[in-house]
Design brief:
Layout lengths: L1 H6 L4 H33 L4 H36 L14 H25 L7 H36 L1
């Protein structure tokens, strides 16, 4: 029974493959969108503040796609490192050894995605909509997530310090 349970961890490979496909799709789509946007901008040849503002908004939305692709990539790598094998060559900052590491990395990227999302709203603001409520809501989520990160990071540091002094 324990062998069956131990080997069942390989079922997570389905999540790894799904997340990797999602990441690849978003990144390729973002690249295609970038190419089309550059091509259409050059072909139209119009230069004005209005076009510049619209272009900036389009690029911000494309960056949002890349960030979401990055989230799915981090999930794929994290699941693989946690359940399948730790022998994945990734930069040190992307190394995931615990579920808390994965959560913290995802929360950090979600904070950036929320910031980019709000930036897109600010850039496309027409002066009519009320961005204050939207901004406050996003700020509240970012503050909450940042507080959560600080608590889990400081708790982790305190536990490491305790382990070091006990040795």
């Amino acid at each position: 029974m324990s062998s069956l349970l131990g080997n069942s961890r390989f079922l997570i490979i389905l999540a790894v493959i799904g997340a990797l496909f999602a990441a690849t799709t978003l990144l390729i789509f973002g690249l295609i969108e970038t190419i089309f946007l550059i091509e259409s901008t050059i072909s139209e040849g119009e230069v004005s503040r209005k076009v510049a503002k619209a272009l900036a908004l389009e690029f911000i939305e494309i960056i949002d796609l890349f960030l979401l692709g990055t989230v799915f990539y981090i999930v794929a790598i994290g699941f693989y490192e946690l359940f399948i094998s730790t022998n994945v060559k990734v930069p040190a900052w992307l190394s995931i050894t615990t579920l808390d590491d994965l959560k913290n990395k995802l929360i950090a990227v979600v904070i950036v995605v929320l910031g980019v999302l709000f930036l897109g709203q600010v850039v496309s603001w027409d002066g009519q909509r009320d961005l204050l409520g939207y901004g406050i809501a996003i700020a509240a989520v970012i503050v909450s997530l940042s507080y959560f990160l600080s608590q889990t990071t400081s708790g982790k540091a305190a536990a490491t310090k305790t382990e070091t002094t006990n040795e």
